[in-house]
Write a structure and sequence with these properties.
2 domains; Immunoglobulin-like; 5-stranded antiparallel beta sheet
Length: about 230
């Protein structure tokens, strides 16, 4: 909200009690150097009351101060309207977010992070796994590690957690970095499927301190992190 400097006018606002006025202003605004539209109007009226009849205040000055008061009033109403609009938008976003539950959410990346020779990540399999291969690729797209799904997670479906010690197919320890994960598998019906890290069903919505979080897999992500929602 727009403010007006009041230094030097404390005594005009309440003659003889400048210190008391300053204290009240600090209680209302946190500073004795700013005032709101009501204080400004009071100041203008006091100036008119104590002006010298033989040398009245310049008309142009009165018009200028009146214009400032109108501007301050307009700014106050605008701020109030924007605050109300912001609150309505937040309520709308919160209401719409719950309709995402059950849909698919994509983070827009297949990336997992290897840190201190350890990585725990999740991949979503929409149908029951019969056989297949999970591939971990480096930043150049080269497959550095493969996992036989038929030997490790056959018969499972949904969000499955995996752990990787950072070693490649030759047993060589790789550097901590970001890698990509994809999987090609055959499900129980014999259909060929492809999936990847970073795409999961939306399981729930959480609101915290005015922000909206989406649960993908076992992790809550800020809504801004999710780049796409779609029906499975």
């Amino acid at each position: 909200m727009a403010t007006i400097n009041t230094k030097g006018y404390e005594s005009l606002l309440n003659p003889g009690t400048a210190s008391s006025t300053t204290t009240k202003a600090e209680d209302k605004t946190g500073s004795s150097d700013v005032l709101g539209k009501d204080d400004f109007l009071k100041l203008l009226l006091v100036e008119l009351q104590y002006q010298d009849p033989t040398s009245p205040m310049d008309t142009e000055k009165i018009l200028t101060q009146t214009s400032q008061l109108a501007t301050l009033e307009s700014a106050t109403k605008t701020n109030t309207a924007l605050e109300n609009l912001s609150a309505q938008l937040k309520e709308s976003v919160s209401s719409n977010a719950t309709s995402l539950i059950g849909k698919m959410g994509s983070l827009g990346t297949t990336a997992i992070t290897l840190e201190n020779a350890k990585s725990t990540y999740e991949v979503y399999f929409p149908t029951e796994i019969k056989d297949g291969t999970l591939s971990i690729k480096n930043k150049d797209g080269k497959v550095v590690k493969t996992l036989d799904l038929g030997d490790t997670v056959a018969g499972k479906s949904g969000v499955i957690a995996f752990q990787w010690d950072g070693k490649d197919n030759d047993g060589v320890q790789l550097d901590d970095a970001t890698y990509g994960v994809t999987a090609d598998y055959v499900d129980a019906s014999g259909a060929s499927k492809t999936t990847q890290a970073g795409v999961y069903p939306v399981e729930s919505i959480r609101y915290d301190s005015g922000s909206t979080y989406v649960k993908l897999g076992s992790t809550y992500y800020p809504m801004s992190r999710v780049v796409e929602y779609y029906a499975e």
